[in-house]
Amino acid sequence: MATKVRITTSEGNILVRLYDETPLHKANFLKLVKEQFYDGTIFHRVIKDFMIQGGDPESKAAPQGKRLGTGGPGYTVKAEFVYPQLFHKRGALSAARLGDEMNPERESSGSQFYIVWGKVYKPAELQQMERQMEMQQQQEIFNQLRKEHHQEIMDLRRNRDQAGLQTLQDRLVAETQAQSKALGTPRFTPEQTEAYTTLGGTPFLDNQYTVFGEVEEGLDVVEKIQNAVTSSSDRPLTDVSMSIEVVEKE
Description:
Layout lengths: L3 E6 L2 E7 L4 H12 L10 E3 L3 E4 L21 E2 L14 E4 L12 E2 L3 E4 L6 H26 L1 H9 L3 H22 L6 H9 L12 E7 L1 H8 L15 E7 L2
Antiparallel strand pairs: 1-2, 1-10, 2-9, 3-4, 4-8, 5-7, 6-8, 6-9
């Protein structure tokens, strides 16, 4: 029997199934739920046609205007990308995190999560996104190669060896193309394409944030929450509070 939790909100109930494929996130989420960590917190960041985010302990009884979004249990959770099997379709439960510059390993917040709403995409939009994914893949490979050859680059610059720099760049570009070809051209799977063109979601977050569950009942509640009127900081003007409990487990 799958592990499921019920998120009881002031707008209705959301039933979520936690994935076995992301055991670290599943265990951590269940631990916090059993400790009643989330009870009394709110969905502090809500963006229409995007997602609803909660899990900040500092949001409990927080007055309007208080800056939220940095609270947590004092630890992070190692990223668990199970891609492309687990992706950001509408209703996906995912872990929030700090940005890449401060968090290059893309570790998840210890408690903050979001539920995806997103939008329905046209096939042509996904094709354009695939081209962008290919360019991003090549850029990441090239950046890593530059980092590995940093000292050599600095020496060539110090010696003002423009010919040497050009030769090295040509070599790194060729190596980038070879590595990218070996990895394969990024493509959405048929399952992703079907979900994103019918149900909706946020494909641009795929393989960037850990997806560790999905809504089985209560998408209408998620829709209601993501439609809430919000302040300039994306907090609903009328707080949407929550409590979470385990309802089914192995």
